[in-house]
Amino acid sequence: MANFLLEVGTEELPADFVSSAIAQWKTKVPASLSEEFLTPATIEYYGTPRRLAILIKDIPSQQEDREEEIKGPPVRAAYKDGQPTKAAEGFVRKQGVSLDDIEIRDTSKGEFLFVQKQIKGRSTTEILQELCPQWITGLEGKRFMRWGDGDLRFPRPIRWLVGLWDREILALELINGSEKIKSDRTSRGHRVLHPDTVTIDQAVDYVDTMRSAWVEVDSIARKEKITAEILAEAQQLGGTAEIYPDLLEEVIDLVEYPTAVTGKFEEEFLKLPTEVITTVMVSHQRYFPVHQEGQVNSLLPNFITISNGDPHKKEVIAEGNGRVIRARLADAQFFYQADCDEHLDTYLPQLETVTFQEKLGSMRDKVDRIIDTAKIIGEQLNATEEQHNEIESTALLCKADLETQMVYEFPELQGIMGEKYAVISGESATVARGIFEHYLPRGADDLMPSTLNGQVVGLSDRLDTLIGIFGIGMIPTGSSDPFALRRAANGIVNIAWNADLGINLNDLLEQGAADFVSAHSDA
After folding, report:
1. Helical residues (DSSP H) of 304-415, grouped into ranges
2. Using an 8 Å Cβ cutoff, are 11 and 156 in contact?
3. What is the DSSP string of 60-92?
4. Residue 451 pLDDT > 60
């Protein structure tokens, strides 16, 4: 039994590729070893922004000899007038046996040639030399690149290879035009904390050796360290950090040696809506917000970021990050104040300049169709006059915030800002809430709309999208659904089911299809 280490060293990889590559290897590596009749005790997978690695433990040094039964051509094709044909001769030549080794057996499909072939096991090192380049070049992902004068494709340039069979270097090679990347036992440490090369004595020393060079290759260990440090930093501030799972997973693969750094910004920015501040932090800067203890909607003027730099320079790092977020928050403050100076309905004419889909008109056209469909749904539900008015107001304003400066700069705030600007504009709390809720649910685990106007306008919006996009023939495929039609259809079912709405979906679809045909036949 032996241990094998493969490390692929690169320029800084995109975070999403690191996790994707490891997931792919977890499927491909065991499968390809199994095809070669090799079963190790364990396979460990590691990844950081500058490296992907596999540590295979206790793998046999050689395949076991085995006997393999191989089926050949049917007897009627293998022999003619008692003499072997070219089919029989070709079969034995390919298998490296003689005609005397052939057996004739009766099967459900007639008589066939068979041979019992003794296969001597190959050395594992020889097999790994064939498999490793396939594991590397077989990875899939977005935005692959070429570099130098070769055709080798990878998300970032490959700079080094480590291949160790216990203590011995296993010769591996990647060819990229005139460049040959050959394996040895030399890796590289943290770019800032240990810029020198690192010598790995034997495969099983990999994790400890890299830790001594300030590189934590184990993503689980990085996650635990990041989480613990964020919680500790927040506790020192007297608050609670909000650790978003998606952000945490991204940050894990952005650093090789994580250090939590606390920064601050001016309290005047706390006058902005909480969602604006957290969007700037999380989506644009990858910072973790800090709430006052027990108050989810009350932020502290602080943030926590995960640095890949020198832990002894936390203050310098915090000041640099603080300058960046202050600039972003100042922009958001300007947008917010400018938007608040306008009534939400003043943005409706501007929707005429925003194309929903080339053949389906502008967003203003879509709003008009949403209003019409929402009225029909309201009638099906026997809505009161007050409810009809709330539904119509919600439908009219549901897309208005798309033309605000805030949503133009931060598109993920659509609906959220619509609700806030509606309140500022004097709309009722129900209408304002419905503007936000008509986007719900945005995913499988999202909230459901709770207001009737949010439910009705949400159904109308999705029905319009489905009918219009299918009407112009843009049917989604397995790999392409740019208008998220599947999600829209699921949303319709989930909204109606969750709220127990007594709608006649068939009538709504028929009416929508008839209106679509009428509008497009006139055109």
Report:
1. 314-340, 363-380, 385-397, 405-409
2. yes
3. -SBPPPEEEEEEEEEHHHHEETTEE-HHHHHHH
4. yes
Q: Closest Cα partner for 508 from 320, 375, 373, 409?
A: 373
- What is the C-alpha separation between 203 and 128, in angstroms, rounded? 14
Tell me whether strands 79-80 and 2-10 are parallel, antiparallel or unpaired: unpaired
Give the DSSP letter string of 135-151. HHHT---SS-B--TTS-
- Token pair, residue 389, equals 């008015």
Which neighbouring-strand residues pair with 106? 111
For 172, residues 6+ apart whose C-beta sits below 8 A from its C-beta are: 6, 129, 132, 133, 161, 163, 182, 183
Measured CA to CA, the distance from residue 523 to residue 518 in angstroms comes to 9
The 10s digit of each residue's pLDDT in 152-165 is 999 999 999 999 99
For residue 91, how many other CB atoms are within 10 A of its CB? 22
Q: Find out whether 444 and 427 touch, Cβ atoms under 8 Å.
A: no
Rounded distance, CA 208 to CA 491, Å? 49
Sign for the CA dihedral angle at 85, 89, 94, 96 comes to positive
What is the C-alpha end-to-end distance of the chain, expressed in Å?
75
Cα separation, 28 vs 431, in Å, equals 52
Amino acid, res. 493: V
> 263-293, pLDDT tens digit by residue?
999 999 999 999 999 999 999 899 999 998 8
Give the type of residue at 454.
Answer: G
Contact 290, 249 (CB under 8 A): no
Nearest to 61 by CA among 4, 106, 139, 124: 124
